[in-house]
Amino acid sequence: MFNRQDDSADEAFYSTPRMVNHIDDATINEITRFYRETLAPEDELLDLMSSWVSHLPVDVTYRKVTGLGMNLDELNANALLDQVLVHNLNKTPALPFSDASFNAVMIVVSIQYLTRPFEVFKEIQRVLKPGGRCIVAMSHRLFPTKAIFAFQTLAPQDRVQLVKEYMRRGGLSEIEFIDRSPEKADPLWIIQGINS
Prior knowledge:
By secondary structure, the chain is an alpha/beta fold. 28% of the residues lie in helices and 24% in strands.
C-alpha cells in the first residue's frame, strides 16, 4: 500500500525547484477561501510538505507561518512563510518542533507522497495545540512515480477514508470530510481533524 514505483532518495527527486501550480486556479482559490473561513490571524500555522506557495489569503497576516518542505529554493520563494525548514518526512517522520506549537497544520495536495503516514500524523497531533486542527486538501493529480500505490489504485472515496484513518490513528478526533470542488475544475476534497 505504501510502496512506490520510484523508491530512490526523495532528496534527488525534489532537488530541482518546481515553481508551478499542481491544481487549477479555481481549486486554489477554493483552498484559500476555506483557509479564510477556518483560520484566524492570531494562529500559528505549519504548512507541512510546503513549497513556493501556501494558498493562504495574502491579505491576512497570521501570527507565524512555518513551512516545512523538500526544496529550499521553493520555500524561500514563498513570501508568506516566516520560517522555513528542509525536512524529509519519509526518512524522518519526527517533526522538529516542540509539543503544542501550532494552531493548525495544513497539507495541500501532498498527502499521497507520505510513506510513513501513521508516524507523521502522531507527530502532527503532538505539535498541535489543544483544539488545533489538521487540514488535508486533496485532489486527483500526482507524480505517479513518487505517490504511494494506494493513491493510484483506490477510488477517491477510499482515499478519503484512508486519510481519515491516518488522522484517527494519529489521535485526532471530530474528523470530517468536506467537498469544496469547484465546477469544471480539479476536485478539492478536504479532510479535517481536531486535536481534542
